[in-house]
Amino acid sequence: MTTLKIGVQLHPEHTSTDAMRRAWREADAAGFDSIWTWDHFFPLTGDSAGTHFDGYSLLAAMAVETSQARFGALVTNTAYRNPDLLADMARTIDHLSGGRFILGVGAGWFERDHREYGYPFGTKADRTRAFAEAIVRIKERLTKLNPPPVGPMPILVGAGGEQVMLRLVAQHANAWNWFGTPTTWAAKNAVLDQWCEKVGRDPGEIERSILVDAGDLDQVEEYAAAGVQHLIVQVPHPYDLAPAARALEQARASAI
């Protein structure tokens, strides 16, 4: 049985760069399988005027200050950067890390980011169509870059839309992430399997992951039984890694 992977998402809000740097070095030394941040421009919780930092600048620093864990943004909004540029940025960060980068992407949802930084927000259908175009361009650019990623640099898609987005996951992704209870996540997972069958993709080629709160860690075995292969724990500042570390110990001790 494959051991459940355990990762942490370090929120870049209400914090400092020094605190984040200490946290990702600690997470790397602790042996977490993955370390993540997010791709937003403003806090998602608490004081909307609180401190916040750009995800991709942080990822470049994370690349050279860690040495073991895979890492990435959970997830990158493909609307914020030209898709060809994003591919180049990801490839460069991958080289800085020695080939540990995961390119996590999604269609975006946080209206304030779009409005205040001058990106069109449109409708959910607009953002989905733009994402479908962007992921094709990203993959094409990755084949043209010299040098290519050290990689292999997986593309993870964060998505829950059952009619279009999970089809795009089946067509293009190496990994998938969503959230929910074991039951609701498993239902989405089953839809992804159905799309894999429809598009002729081996479902085993797509790693299945979930983003959870520390309070959900009493359900680790239930998530694993539902098909989760990689469990990622949200860790806000002041970055208490202890609950996720206990889940990591549990997963490795029992080979969940």
Order of helices and strands: EHEHEEHEHHEHEHEHEH
Q: Name the assembly state.
A: single chain
CATH architectural label: Alpha-Beta Barrel
**Protein structure class:** alpha/beta
How do the strands line up in the largest sheet?
1-2-3-5-6-7-8-9
What's the end-to-end separation, in Å? 8 Å
β-strand amount: 15-25%
**So what's the overall shape?**
globular
Number of beta-strand segments: 9
Instruction: Indicate the mean pLDDT.
Output: 97
Described by strand count, sense and barrel closure, the largest sheet is: 8 strands, parallel, barrel
Describe the structure concisely.
The protein has 256 residues and is α/β, with parallel strands linked by helices. 45% of the residues lie in helices and 16% in strands. The chain has helices spanning 17-30, 55-65, 83-97, 111-117, 124-144, 165-172, 182-199, 220-226, 242-254, and strands spanning 5-10, 34-37, 70-73, 76-77, 101-106, 155-158, 175-178, 207-212, 230-235.
